[in-house]
Amino acid sequence: MSDTENSDKRELLLEIQDLRIEGYADDKWVEIVHGVNLELHRGEILGLIGESGAGKSTIGLAAMGYTRDGCRISGGSIDFEGMDLTTANQDELASLRGAKIAYVAQSAAASFNPAHRLIDQHTEAPVQYRIKKRLESQEDAMELYHRLRLPNPKEIGFRYPHQVSGGQLQRAMTAMAMACRPDLIIFDEPTTALDVTTQIEVLAAIRDIVDQFNTAAIYITHDLAVVAQMADKIKVMLRGEEVEEAETIKMLEDPEEDYTKSLWSVRSYKRRQKYRPQGDAVPVVSVQNIDAAYGDVKVLENVSFDIHAGMTVAVVGESGSGKSTAARCITGLLPPTAGRILFNGEALPSSYKARSRDQLRQAQMIYQMADTALNPKVRISEIIGRPAHFYRGLRGAKLKKRVDELLDLIELEPRDFYNRYPTELSGGQKQRIGIARALAANPSFIICDEVTSALDQLVAEGILKLLDRLQKEFNLAYMFITHDLATVRSIADEVVVMKEGRIVEQGPKDEMFTPPHHPYTDLLLSSVPEMDPEWLTTVLEERGVDNIGEAALKKQ
Amino acid sequence: MNYFVIGYYTLLIGASCLAAYYQARTAFLLLFSLTLGSFIMGIIGGEPALWFVTVSAGVIALAAGTSYAFREFLVIILPDEMSRNVKGAPLTASFGLFVVMTYAIAGLFAPVIAPFGEAEVISTAFAPADAQMLLGADQLGRDMFSRIIYGARNSVGLALLATAIAFFFGAVAGLIAATKGGWFDQAMGRVVDVVMSIPSIIFALLLLSIFGTSTTTLVIVIGVIYSPRVFRLSRAVAGNIVVMDYIEAAKLRGEGTWYLIRKEILPNSTAPLIAEFGLEFSFVFLLVAGLSFLGLGIQPPTADWGSMVRENATLVSFGEITPLIPAGAIALLTVAVNFIVDWMLYRSSGLKE
Question: Which residue ranges of chain A lie beneath pLDDT 50?
Answer without folding.
Answer: 1-7
